[in-house]
Amino acid sequence: MVHSIKKVVILGSTGSIGRQTLEVVRSLPDHFKVLGLAGGANVNLLKEQAGEFRPEYIYCRDCHKESACNSRFIPMEEMAALPEADVIVVATPGGAGLQPVLAAAKAGKVVALANKESLVSAGEIVTGIVRENKAKLLPVDSEHSAIWQCLSGEVTPPSRIILTASGGPFRSLTKNEIDKVTPEQALKHPSWKMGLKVTIDSASLMNKGLEIIEARWLFDMHIQNIQVVIHPQSIIHSMVEFADGSLKAQLSRPDMRFPIQYALTYPERVVNHTLPRLNWAEVGKLDFEIPDMTRFPCLGLAISAGEEGKTFPAALCAADEVAVDLFLKGKISFGQIPELIAKVLDAHQPVSKPDIDDILAADAWARQKVTELAGNF
Ligand SMILES: NC(=O)C1=CN([C@@H]2O[C@H](COP(=O)(O)OP(=O)(O)OC[C@H]3O[C@@H](n4cnc5c(N)ncnc54)[C@H](OP(=O)(O)O)[C@@H]3O)[C@@H](O)[C@H]2O)C=CC1
Ligand SMILES: CC(=O)[C@@H](O)[C@H](O)COP(=O)(O)O
């Protein structure tokens, strides 16, 4: 089949998703050209990537314009809207991902979306701008890529989405034990190698809560029809149930290059011999459990914020981002992450039908509130 070479922009190229995106690009040189790269603090890696992939455009948060490399230095929002770009990979984490997603959506781009917080905080606004400008949101998050793939070819909406969760490293610990774990323990994810923030969110099950809200916007489902099942092997990436009770699931080895490649080559599927195949003899069996919201209160907090809507999800996201950072810096315990978020949500004065300024104000308020509350601990 004849295919054109897609020009790809990668925001967050020095992170876990960014590096794996570049691995996919490297393994399929006839399919992609890197048009732009953006990173934060890891200036040396960004320079190395720029040397190898020779992007026309670059952005680096922590370096001076002239020191990055030979590429043209432009802001991330401008890079996300480049007219010649075929696909924009947004893998900048947390609140830093929102403005690039909005810029790409306003420019009608195809967005391979790894950043989940933008949809959690401002799902209605982002999906509205996507629709108005005929942009496309292609999920990279493994669970949402799985659901997207399961829905392919279906003409009736699903009755239920079942998100799988690894359960994280503390799946079998008691509440008391979980509350006291160290950052080092929490960063040992059993099945995925990811950035710091999403790894801590996985350990607290906040990640699954954020993913419920993300799925709500991506697939236009009520939160009550999105459920979570613990599946420690992380081989089934999620499932969809239809009106007739039939279920579809998507499976692969836990390797983010699968959903990244699918989003980049969509609607085609492309042979890539560097991607690992499932060995059923090695897999042996697949296990499932129901999540325990008493031991993992972050999941319940996210579901409540998602059901309440308004500016609650934006406050949840921002509070979580700051709380995770405080935990990683040793300033609060793991058990204090949900405690702080619950207090922030209790104190939040929500705005109904928020516009983007309301979302940004809720985000700023929650960041300040959580810092203030943590100071009292
Ligand atoms: N990792 C994974 O497997 C998965 C991740 N996701 C989501 O994808 C997103 C990225 O995750 P992940 O790759 O793990 O994160 P990482 O922390 O590994 O990488 C983050 C990237 O963003 C850059 N960055 C951070 N802050 C800024 C900023 N303010 N301005 C510009 N660049 C910035 C970092 O630059 P630098 O390193 O140079 O500082 C780095 O390139 C998150 O939203 C996460 O939830 C979703 C599913 C799976
Ligand atoms: C790899 C990916 O997409 C993550 O969202 C991952 O699923 C996190 O693992 P948990 O299932 O432990 O949250």
Give a quick summary of the entry.
The chain is an alpha/beta fold. The protein contains 16 helices and eleven strands.
CATH architecture of the largest domain: Orthogonal Bundle
| Beta-strand share of residues | 5-15%
What is Rg? 20 Å
Total number of helical segments?
16
Q: Kindly identify the CATH topology of the largest domain.
A: Rna Polymerase Sigma Factor, Chain: A
CATH class wording of the largest domain: Mainly Alpha
Ligand types: NADPH dihydro-nicotinamide-adenine-dinucleotide phosphate, 1-deoxy-D-xylulose-5-phosphate
How would you describe what is shown here?
This protein is an alpha/beta fold. 45% of the residues lie in helices and 14% in strands. The radius of gyration is 20 Å and the shape is globular. The protein starts with 5 loop residues before the first strand and ends with a helix. The mean pLDDT is 96. The structure holds NADPH dihydro-nicotinamide-adenine-dinucleotide phosphate and 1-deoxy-D-xylulose-5-phosphate. 1-deoxy-D-xylulose-5-phosphate is lined by residues 141-143, 165-166, 168, 192, 202, 207-208, 256. NADPH dihydro-nicotinamide-adenine-dinucleotide phosphate is lined by residues 12-18, 38-42, 61, 91-93, 96-97, 114-117, 141, 192, 194-196, 198, 256. It is an enzyme of class 1 (oxidoreductase). Its cofactor is Mg(2+); Mn(2+). Residues 8-123 form the 1-deoxy-D-xylulose 5-phosphate reductoisomerase N-terminal domain.
